[in-house]
Amino acid sequence: MVSCGISGQAPYRSVFTHGFIMDGEGRKMSKSLGNVISPLDIIEQTGADILRLWVVSGDTSDDIRISPDSLARLSEGYRKIRNTFKYLLGNLHGFDFKKDALALDELIEVDRWALSKLEALTGEVTAAYESGQLHRIYHAVYNFCVREMSSFYLDVLKDRLYTDSMQSVSGRSCRTVLYEILTVLAKCLSPVLSFTCEEVWQNLGFESSIHLESWPKLSAKKRDCVLEERWGRFLLVREKVLKALEEKREKKEIGNSLEAGVELALSKNGDTEFLKSFKSDLPGLFLVSNVEVLNDPTVSDGELRVSVTKAQGQKCERCWNYRESVGTDKNYETLCHRCVTVLKRV
Asked: Does residue 120 belong to any structural domain of this protein?
């Protein structure tokens, strides 16, 4: 009212309202019921970011429930997001984005897919902030970290990150995208996980606060829906392969998936060219040591038969893959050809 009286306008652009805060059973909080949860107690026990995350985790257009159980679930969700930050930071040590980053058209295909998914997430999160649908932010970021990142992209990157040279195209390509993912995620979550994102930003070496940074700009060049559709199709195949590997693991026929080789058989008219288009990347994408793709007349049209066998060759002591090239270099008798090549370039 003061602002309206002095300047003739309200001191804000919009007002955000929310429902009542209820306990875990849907009852209003009151001292007589003894179900009041103090925000200060939550901050002391779990930290302020967990409380801030709880605020945006529920649909604020309705009443919001809070209980020790719901806070425990949120703490677990927060832990997975924080672990994603930790993985990204750990694998960017020594990477200088200004010197080492690759251009978009130089990136390896799976890295371009991850960048495209990040761009989709940025658009979704931005729209959620602008529309006041804050619950969409947490769920979108959580799903991105758990499904696209942890369950697939970050998992298949381990071999490249730990085996390939940091200065190789492979090493620079994935670290370029990891840097993009880390900085964009931190910016997108900074209004919610203020302290965590500031910690991430300082660990990246920036002197200024993340809260003084500009919002991530959307780029039509980074979003590739055709590429996302192609990899979406591939991930369906990968699900079948992982299921077959898990069945072998349960039977104790294999331990680590790198002990396995995979044969993918399609019908005579099956689209083997689609799988073969991933070339030598298939073992790494399936987390096995070798993959063979073939047409088999005994396979029905539209069917994909996955066979899991013991991997051929010997175990490389450096990358742990089973290769027939292990021991072919007399100077590196326990290493595969790929690892020998990397070490000779050091």
From this structure: yes
Return all residues near 56 (Cβ < 8 A) that are at least 6 apart.
Answer: 134, 135, 137, 138, 192
> Which residues, listed in sequence order, are joined to residue 266 by a DSSP beta bridge?
295, 304
Structure tokens at 18: 């929310």
Domain-embedded: residue 234: no
Q: Is the pTM of this model over 0.85?
A: yes
Grouping H, G, I as helix, E, B as strand and the rest as coil, residue 203 is helix
Question: pLDDT tens digits for 248-306?
Answer: 999 999 999 999 999 999 988 778 899 999 988 999 999 999 999 999 989 998 899 99
3-state secondary structure of 264: strand
pLDDT digits over 332-344, tens only?
A: 999 999 999 999 9
Which pairing describes strands 314-315 and 322-323: parallel, antiparallel, or unpaired? antiparallel
What pLDDT, on the 0 to 100 scale, is given for residue 63? Answer: 82
What is the C-alpha to C-alpha distance for residues 346 and 343, in angstroms, rounded to an integer? 5
- As for how many domains the chain has, the answer is 2
| Domain contains 128 | yes
User: Residues with Cβ < 8 Å from 238, sequence gap 6 or more?
Assistant: 152, 285, 286
Q: Examine the pLDDT at 24 and tell me if it is beyond 90.
A: no
Q: How far apart are CA 245 and CA 306, in angstroms?
A: 9
Can you give the pLDDT at residue 60? 77
What CATH number corresponds to the domain at position 267?
A: 3.30.2320.20
For residue 160, the domain's CATH number is 1.10.730.20
Could you tell me how many helices (H) and strands (E) the chain has, helices first? 14, 7
* Residue pLDDT, tens place only, 188-236: 999 999 999 999 999 999 999 999 999 999 999 999 999 999 999 999 9
Give the position of tokens 């019908």.
Answer: 267
Residue 141 forms part of a structural domain: yes
One domain for residues 211 and 292? no
For tokens 């805060």, what's the residue?
21
* Residue showing tokens 């790198």: 258
Q: What tokens appear for 250 in the block?
A: 């349960």
In angstroms, the CA 281 to CA 291 distance is: 9
